[in-house]
Amino acid sequence: MRRAGLVALVACSLAVTAGCGDKAEEKTDTGGQGGGTEQVSLGFSQVGSESSWRVANTKSVQDSAVSAGIALDFQDGKQQQENQITAIRGFVQKKVDVIAFSPIVESGWDAVLQEAKDAKIPVILTDRAIDTTDTSLYRTLLGSDFVAEGRKAGQWLVDRYRGRQDDIKIVQIEGTTGSAPANHRRVGFTEAIESYPHLKVIDSKDGEFTREGGERVMKTFLAKHKDIDVVYAHNDEEGLGAIDALEAAGKKPGEDVLIITVDASRGGLEALAAGKLNFVVECNPLLGPQLMDLVKKAAAGETLPTRVVTDETVFDQAKAKEVLPTRQY
Ligand code: GZL
Ligand code: ZN
């Protein structure tokens, strides 16, 4: 592994307990292109449209840009890193005031972010973190603490099986390989259950954060393992896919096999309310208002906090039933 890559990996694994890019010290801005009275321009590169979480996140960014009077150039990465790199290059050429993006995976961003830095365009990481040894390449990371989300999922399982000594067999449907949410949700969950040897993760595979991916992976698990007690899926879509696979195999999801997911989208909370999921950790996609506030500050050359963590909670069946009528996404 190239030395730089090794250093980055070590940096990430050292930082990963707090989540990459989660350092809290203040950082001074050298100023953006904008500020003053003219309209601030923002280039935003999105991961894709793989999940209802992502669709809600896109809507929040687009609606908030309109209400903030910010000129938004929105580019859909269609789940490919090279599309996002091309989009960021385009923003530099267009000389936007600020660049924001949700990096589909953690690595491989230093070169293009150096180009933005050389052009003196501030960069705001939104939703997902990157792995870099040069944290001057971005001004702040706005988004959830995925390690904390994984810990919440694991802690629910520890509490649920307190006192049990027999082995509990867990399968994990991971998010996109190399993405911050997949890496950090796995770390947080592992940390939470590691001192309970009877809670055993017997298999783990990438379900790409989609319902089809969740169903495909769950079918593989069911073919490979005689008995499975728990599914830990890194997002609701994968959990809904696991429900599809379990029902096709004549099993009762939420009863024969417990399912924990992350996001708390409408689909996830409806399945939880129906008893087909058992516990859902929220990951809030409505980052638009906070992002636009940070964009204006960056454009005006103001200092930004290096980390803005989103507020979010957890849901059991009763709470899901309560919030569904007024849920925004
Ligand atoms: C998490 C976000 C993840 C969601 C998935 O902040 O990056 O990507 O959990 C989405 O639903 O696909
Ligand atoms: Zn990381």
TrEMBL record:
Entry-linked InterPro entries = Peripla_BP_I, SBP_2_dom
Q: Which UniProt keywords apply?
A: Signal
Principal place of residence: other
Record-annotated membrane-spanning stretches: none
Source species of the chain: Paractinoplanes rishiriensis
What name does the UniProt record give this protein? LacI family transcriptional regulator
Q: Which residues form the Periplasmic binding protein domain?
A: 44-302
Q: Which family, according to the similarity comment?
A: Belongs to the bacterial solute-binding protein 2 family.
- Report the SUPFAM superfamilies cross-referenced here: Periplasmic binding protein-like I (SSF53822)
